[in-house]
Amino acid sequence: MDIKKKNTILIGVVSASLIALVIILAGVSRFRAYDSYEIEDSFRIEGTSGLNFLPFADGILAYSRDGAVHYEKTGATVWNEAYNMLSPVAVTNGSRLIVYDRQGSTLVAMSEEKELWNVSTNHTIVDAAVSADGTVAVLSQDGETGYISLYNDQGKQAGSGQVHLDQTGYPMSLAISDDGKRLIVSFEYPADGRLATRVNIYDFSEDGDRQKDNIMASFRYKDTVCPEVAYFSDGRACAFTGSGVRIYSAGRQIKEKAYVKAGYNIAAVAAGKTGFALIRRDKSDKGVITVYSDNGKEKFRRNLLSSYERVFFLDDGRVMIKSGRQVDIFTRTGRKWFTYRFPDQVEAFIPGETLREFFLVQRDSTQIIKLS
């Protein structure tokens, strides 16, 4: 065997060994439980108690009525965007972000680098969503007419439609698929003296153009309302109703594929890219969180030992619960991955660039920490 061939084999062995080591270390990080942390860096965010926070592009989005600021992973300010909104709501999807004024008329679209475009609608915004490719969907209302508007990633209107409230109902919630082609919208309407729900799924590709009003499927449910809808990363959609969660298939023939019945009142819901969580109150008024896959199969159930402020999914499927000074993170299988009670109030606990890095936002400082 010549030297060149020996070197090639040696390089291949070393590369394979390094890849195996990385996989092993990643597995150790995922299966290990953490109950402490080390401070890697710190910076200050002014007025944290009056701000809302979201993870965005490996950094932090801080926003309020007056504007939004994007901090990168080092804590440096990437951009600072001023606006004036009475009830701002921020929605992120990968490197895309929108902030809109709920019950107002202003929407701003941004990327991780800068503002992209903004729009002032002629109608009151009820809900809005952004896809991974930057398509923005807006659900608005004016008197007895509802409006659905689509904007491309340049802010140009790509589609629109009207819904008449006496026929369809009052718009409640909207979500958009990752490819920007489909919308799921919930409506509320009276039926036999009670409130009922209609769920429409719209398609704005060639498939939907062949359907009346671009509606691919429509479902009705009596004696319940639907305040929230969502899309999963595989194209399936779900509707959170007062009686339970309805899951709909992807593809051209959309059907209700699963139904997760709510055995008792749902206090809160959270949707991720690959699943969802329901928080219910048991007979003693304690919280119980149940996490499901995107096909409606129960993955795990845990009692909540304390009150909760927020429940949300991390990008890799882990579930985080924050309450006051307490932060708990569960793996996708329900194992407690991190738990810690901080000495001071936690305003936000935002995932960072790596699996174990987080932004710990508190009143007087923001720290970049690494779990240990």
What does this protein structure show overall?
The chain is mostly beta strands. Among the domains are: 180 residues, 6 Propeller (Neuraminidase); 77 residues, Beta Barrel (Thrombin, subunit H). 9% of the residues lie in helices and 53% in strands. The protein contains two helices and 32 strands. The strands form eight sheets. It has a four-stranded antiparallel sheet with strand order 1-32-31-30, with no helix packed on it. Strand 8 and strand 9 form a beta hairpin. About 2% of the residues have low confidence.
Helix content: under 10%
CATH level-1 class of the domain at 83-262: Mainly Beta
Distance between the termini: 48 Å
What is the fourth-level CATH superfamily of the domain at 83-262? TolB, C-terminal domain
Strand content: over 45%
The residue ranges in which pLDDT falls below 50 over 5 or more consecutive positions are: 20-28
Which structural class fits the helix and strand makeup?
mainly beta
Shape: globular
How would a textbook summarize the main sheet? Answer: 4 strands, antiparallel
Strand order of the largest sheet: 1-32-31-30
The second-level CATH architecture of the domain at 83-262 is 6 Propeller
- The overall pLDDT, averaged over residues, is 89
Could you give the count of β-strands? 32
Count of DSSP-assigned helices: 2
Q: Quote the CATH topology of the domain at 83-262.
A: Neuraminidase
Keywords, separated by commas or semicolons:
single chain; 372 residues; mainly beta; Thrombin, subunit H; 4-stranded antiparallel sheet; 32 strands
Summarize the helices and strands and which ones pair or pack.
Elements: H1 3-31, E1 37-43, E2 52-56, E3 59-63, E4 67-71, E5 77-82, E6 88-93, E7 96-101, E8 106-111, E9 115-120, E10 124-130, E11 136-142, E12 145-151, E13 157-164, E14 170-176, E15 182-191, E16 194-203, H2 206-209, E17 215-221, E18 228-231, E19 237-241, E20 244-248, E21 256-261, E22 266-271, E23 275-281, E24 287-293, E25 298-303, E26 310-313, E27 319-323, E28 326-330, E29 336-341, E30 348-351, E31 357-361, E32 366-371
